[in-house]
Structure formats: structure tokens, C-alpha cells
Amino acid sequence: MITISFQNYNPFYVSKIKNVEGYRWQPEVKYWSLPNNNGTLKIILRAFEGEEIYIDPVLQTELSFRQLHRDFENLRRELVSRKYSYKTIKSYIFYNRDFLNFTCKKPSDTTDSDIKDYLLYLIEKKDAATSTLNQAINALKFYYGTILKKKFVYEIKRPRKNKKLPVVLSKEEVAKILSSVDNIKHKTILMLVYSTGLRVGEVVRLKPEDIDSNRMLIHVKGSKGRKDRYTILSKTALDVLRYYWKEYEPQKWLFEGVKPEKHISVRTAQKIFEYTCKKVGIKKDITIHTLRHSFATHLLESGIDLRYIQELLGHKNSKTTEIYTHVTTKNLSQIKSPLDNLNLTRTQDIQDDEND
Question: In degrees to the nearest 10, what's the CA dihedral of 164, 177, 175, 188?
Fold first, then answer.
């Protein structure tokens, strides 16, 4: 309940209270009570606008929470209207909410120092990766810069990117993984990720009409950067896909989830890959995305031009694709180590001497 009291009887105030539904006079304690329903507090404050009012701190917190909820709803609507992906919208709202929980301030009271402290907290306490920090910065810049028109966020320097090379599976390891999957649906998903180079999020969102078996292409719609593109369709993958099709007869989505109107989740596909790798004993630090890295590397090793690989992967910048030149064994395998040119005693000779 919300209670209202004033020092002296005032018929003008009383008339305002009686315009709010659910009011009651409590003669024993001498105050008016109203149900704390959604919107009641707003109606009361509007009715007493211009008057000197003391608001209990509990209600002030509630007001701040409701205002914050409205602010984030405005953020969500702005992101949706600009056609940001669901994943990006979820991420932007999360980091802005997490930032305010960290500062315990209202958005209007935050400073440049608060954001720097928050980023330091992500680095030191959360051990956040560079990509996570950039995502947090993008989220804060959009809300405070684009929505609230604050300029201090543009002074933040972005962290240097980690120059890590992707982990790649050998062709033998890929074959071992794909051969060990018994479930035809699971096998088709993993086979498509490797044979097309698609991101796992792109594979789970494929629809039956995206498969063009006549041209041996797959139409990828609304991928990263809201771009459409085509990628290759493997003949082997098509044979497995046709068998899967007869078994499951998918309608809206190529890979339907528990509920047919929804596609299988990215996390489910990741778990399928994790379980399979554990089953066959592959101990590399890998994820299902490693199949995409392996696709690009194996194409490069087979002599496919880097420009075509960039197009298949949907990379905007060629520098992103060039990373695979650092993990391919095509040229490295032709280099002979200088150790092999030294005239050293062979291991076998050492063992023979010991046996003698």
C-alpha cells in the first residue's frame, strides 16, 4: 500500500486523493491509503505536481527502477528499429544494466570515470577478453552517446586486440568426429558447419528453401552485418541432408527444436560438438566454431584463392581472412628444420650401443 498524509486538513488535497481509485481513509493512524498497483504512484505524483512532497526512499527506489525500465525499453526499441540482431540487443541491454548495477547511479549521474572503473572491473575481476570489452564499450557508447547524447564516452580508448591464432583440426580429426556421430540430425548439423564454413548461428537458422541443390549452393540470409551471401553445398553433405530430410520432414526450419515453430538452439549444437569430441578423445581447446576455421584452412591448403574463401566466410575485411595463412601447413611442411641437417648420432645407434 501507498500511504499519504499531510499536517493539516486540506479539502483540496483530499479531493485529489479521491480521484485515485481504491483510496481509503484510516482514522486510527490518520492517513490515506491506496493500493500500490502499476501506475498508482505516477497518478498521485501527477495529481500533486507543483506541491512540496516528501517521498519515502523505498518509493524513490521504485520510481528509479521504473524509470530505468522505461529507459532500457527505449534502448531496446531504438536497437530494434535500426534492425540490430537479437544477440546484439540482448548484449547491449545486459552491459548497460550491469554497468548501472556496478555504479549504483542513475544514467544521468554517471561520469567518464565510472565507465573507466567499470571496464577495469571487467578486466581485473571478470578476466574479460578483448572482444568482451569492445562489446561493452559499444553498448555504453550507443546508450550514452546515441540515446542520451553524452560525449564523454567517446574519450574511452579501446583495448588492443589479442593476436591469437585459431585452433584448427586436421582432416583426419574432422573425419573422426563426423564418422562417430550416429544421430542423423546431429551428423547433418556438424557436416554442414564444416562443409560450408557457416557460423553455427547461421546453420541453425537455415530454412528448407535455403538449400539450392540444383546450383549446389546454400543461401545464407541476414547473417552478420545483416548481409546475404551464398556458400557451397557439398555433394556428400547433400546426400546426408536428403536422408535427414526423409527422416524428419522439417517445415519452417531446417533443424527444428523441441517446438517445431522454433529452430534448434546454438547452445544445443555446441553441446552436440562437445559431446562428440569427448567421445572420440580429441583434447584440443576447441568449439564448434573450430569446424569453420578448419574449413577455411583446408580450402587454403588445397590451393583455393583467399578472396574466394573471404566471400564464402562472409568476411567484410580481407585481413580477417588472412589469419588462416598463419595456421596453414601448406608451406610450413615444405620447410626442413636445420636440426635435420646436422650430423648427429642417431637415436637407434645410441640404443644399439646401450644394448651392447
Answer: -100
